[in-house]
Each structure stands twice: as structure tokens, then as C-alpha cells.
Amino acid sequence: MKLNAFRLFLGFILILSIYLFATAPTPLPTNTTNSRTIPTNLALSILNQENNVARSLYTKEIVLAGKKQGLKFDEDWKKNNLDAGPLPAQFLRETANQIEKSPQPIGLFLGSDFPVNSANRLRGKQLTFFNALKDTQQPQYFYADDINRHIYMAADIAISRACVSCHNEHKDSPKTNWKLNDIMGATTWTYPEAKMDHSNLIKMIVTYRKSVQKTYERYLKNVSSYKIKPEIGDKWPRHGFFLPSSDVFMRRFEQDASASTLISLLNVNVESKIP
Amino acid sequence: MSLSRRQKVAYSLGLSLNVIVVFILLHPQYSSWHAHGPIQSGHTDIECNACHQKSSGTLRQQLQAKVQFLLGNREENVHVATRPVSNTQCLACHARDNDNHPVHRFNEPRFAKVRTKLMPQTCLGCHMEHTGKRVTQNIDICQNCHEDLKIKQDPITTSHYQLVKQQKWHTCLGCHDFHGNHIMTLPDTLTRLISKESIEAYFSDGESPYSQQKHHKAKKKLNET
Q: How far apart are CA B40 and CA B129, in angstroms?
């Protein structure tokens, strides 16, 4: 048997080329999109707007009004036998946990320069931008290259006297002279791309709302094991020893949040994707 | 180039043996033969493909996409054969609602320094598999984030502040389990502390020194509800 090594080599290259190029099967899809895009800082500011509405509703209508009716709220609300609901910070953290379970690559965090729990103290670049946020009273946007995330930071403001008194009176609070409307910390959002598909933003809003709903439902699930249970239905704590059902809570949240979200979406300066 | 009869037999035999070895190695029953180290005891019943999941597309599509990426004609790289193991695979069995240190929290920008050191944003940062160990970090891991810990109304006899000041970082895990999954009452004195040796043995895949009662039990199989 006589074999020409050069011909053998050429044959091998030909077969390899056909395998890799010539009769190509359907190429694997990429994540790139041809639809119109929106800058991430703008998209995250819309999500933050939604978050402000949810927190305000929960703080004022559930925590503040609930306390007056005898409902308890505690940072260790998940522990058995406490018969307590999440404080606003824990409500946000639980919402962030729920977002994390979704396929949307959004991150949501809460931190401060004077946190009740020292593990939540802002450091490094995040602290630098938080100081800029306090100085300018404007949200901050930057890129964290070690995690390849675009970061949006917005102020957490003491929106009610309950925020102020709770933080001033907490046994572990490092600062005890908070005042109404102080910037107590920052809500930090993260996202991996500098811009996003318009439809992706809608998915993110839906994800955020579902996460709020799941968090509130988690609270109601805890309530069902309380020794003395408030009545769950159409009424709110401001009417007595009641809690709104998940549907009622979400309807009110959507009512409060949707107008401003829709206006923001309509006003968005949509960029066309460069062909 | 002409081959003698003896050479032809030798080549045929070699080729056949190679094919047999490849078939054996590809068989799931023998997959542990080409694992790059011993798996920790809790994972011995798990099949390789539960964590090492197939990349999307056929091998040919993957190779073509790889070539296009290397030629600069494609923006995204692809993984050939299997995808890298990520948090998704770990959390499919281990996710729970009340984790004291969920990995995603370490994706916050302020953890940049600790990320370079420990990679706590990934499960594998502390639980590198195929090492034969349960935990692949040191017992004093807590010092990376809790150095400025101060508790005003400290419930323990020797304060947390004192323990931090004296750099007794091994004591943290003597009272608290990292993920808070064990149902137990926290001790209020150091005399009831779990010893450093017991925790290190646990890290090396030994018996758990913590309570046997858990908030969450890991799934045995991915499709378990």
C-alpha cells in the first residue's frame, strides 16, 4: 500500500474545512439583539422608581399603620415564634432574594455608611460614589470592572418618622441623630450590559413586581402561623387589625407605581441600535 | 510507504484497543475514572452530568462557533462539550430562603476586595469540588468582612468586640454556622464553643459538629421537588 503523505495531509485539511466551514449547520444563536435599546442607567432608574413606591407603600401602610394596631415587625422576622413581619430593609432584601431567583441578571442591594448591621457598611468605590450621591443629591452610575456590572446607586431617604425613630433607637445603630428626609443609605442596582433591549426592561419590571408580590406573600404565610392573626382581605391596617391580601396589596402598588413608570417609558430617549 | 503484515496487525490492535478504552471512559458508570479528584461524601451519589451540563448545540456547531469566535466573526465565545459549573447547578439543590450568606450578595460592588481573595460570589469559592473536602477555605474566613464588628448590647460573656480585637477568628464558626442552616441555640459563653479541630475536621469532609437538625435538606436529585 502506497500512501502519499502530502495528499493525506491535504485530504485531512479539506475534511476539517468542510466540517468547520463549508457545509455549516445552523450557527448557534448569540445574545445580541437587533431591536431598539435603552441605556442601563435609565432602565435602572425606572426600576428604582418602582422600588421607591413599593417601599413607601409597605413602610407607611403596613409597618407604620400596622404597629399602631399591634402588629410587630422585626429584623429577625424569619425566626419562629416572633410573630413579626419584615422591617422595610428586610422587605427589600427579601425582594432582592426573589429577583435573584429569576432569569433576569439584575442585582439589588441596600447599604449605608452608618448601617445598623455593620456587615452592610459601604466600602471602596461604592462608598466613594455614595459620598458623591450625598453631595450632589443625584443618583450615581458607574462600572465595576471586577464583576463586569454597571452600577446604579440611588438615595434611601428617611421618608417617615418611623424610619428616623427606629434607626435612632436601635440598640446597634452607630448613628442616633437621623432626621426626616436624611439620606440614610443607598439602594444599589447592578446589571451586566451598558444598554438593554426595550422588551428586556419590561421583563425586568415584571420580575421586580413579581418579586415584591412573592415577598409580601412570604410575609402573609408567616402571619398565618401567628398566635393572634390579623384578618387578611380587602382592608388595610389603617382600618383596624387587618392586612390586605396579596392581590389587594399588589393592586394598590400597581396603581401607585404604573403612572410614573409609564411616563418614564414614554419619555425614554430610545437609542436605535447601530447596524 | 508500505506496511508489513505484522505492522498492520499491530495498528489494527492498537486502534481497536483505543476505541474500547474511549467507549469505557464515555460510559456514565465509569465517569469517575476521569474525574480530576475525589468528590466530597455528600455528592458521591450525584451523576457527573448533574453539575457538568452539556453546552448548547451539537459538537460540530460548538466547534464552528468557536472557530468563528477565534476568527473575530462572532462576539460571544462558546464552551465546547460542557459548560463550566456555576452557582446555578449548586443552587438547584442547595437554594433556600433564609441563607445567612447567599452567594449573590457578594456581587455587590463593596465586596470587590474580598472577591479577589475568596471569590465568595461563587459557591466554588469555598466549596471547590474534587478536592475531597467539604469546605476549601480556612476557618478564619470571617475576618475578611467582619473586622469592624461591634455589637452594642452583646449577649455573650466575652464580647464579639474582644474576640475580634484578639483575632480569635476561629471562634466565629464555633457558634455560628456560615449559612445558618443548622437549627441550634447559640451558646452565650466560650466554654460551649465547638472546637477548632472539630470544625476543621468538618471542613475536611468529616462529621458535622453542628446540630443534625436542618432548616433545609439538599435535594438528592435535580428533579426532586
A: 7
A28 touching B (Cβ < 8 Å): yes
- Whether the CB of A7 is below 8 Å from some CB of chain B: the reply is no
- What is the pTM assigned to this prediction? 0.80
Domain residue limits, chain A: 37-271
Distance CA(A39)–CA(A141), nearest Å, equals 11
The one-character DSSP state at A81 is T
Round to whole Å and give the CA distance between A154 and A144. 16
How many Cβ atoms are within 10 Å of B32's Cβ, its own excluded? 12
- B147 pLDDT tier (thresholds 50, 70, 90): confident
Residues B48-98 pLDDT 10s = 888 999 998 888 888 888 888 998 888 888 998 899 999 999 999 998 888
* Positive or negative: CA dihedral A100, B80, B115, B170: positive
Closest residue in B to A192 (Cα) is: B107
DSSP, residue by residue, chain B:
----HHHHHHHHHHHHHHHHHHHHHHSGGGGGGG-SSPPPGGGTTS-HHHHSPBPSS-HHHHHHHHHHHHTTS-SS---SSBPPP-HHHHHHHH--TT-SS-GGGGGSGGGHHHHHHH-TTSGGGT--SSSS-S--S-TTGGGGT-TT---TT--SSS-HHHHHHTT-GGGHHHH--TT--B--PPPSSGGGPPPHHHHHHHHTT----S-S-BS-PPPSSTT--
Residue in B closest to A2 by C-alpha = B1
* CB contacts, 8 Å: B146 with chain A: 118-119
Of B65, B107, B145, nearest to A119 by CB-CB distance is B145
A86, A163 Cβ separation under 8 angstroms: no
What is the rounded distance in angstroms from the CA atom of residue B144 to the CA atom of residue B138? 11
Could you give the percent of chain A with pLDDT greater than 90? 68
CA distance A190 to A149: 6
pLDDT of residue A234: 96
Predicted pLDDT at B174: 93
In chain B, residues with a C-beta closer than 8 Å to the C-beta of A97 are 97, 102, 104
Q: Residue A267, exposed/middle/buried by CB under 10 A (0-12, 13-18, 19+)?
A: exposed
Rounded Cα gap, residues A201 and A193, in angstroms? 12
Q: Which residues of chain B are within 8 Å of residue A111 when distances are taken between CB atoms?
A: 108, 110
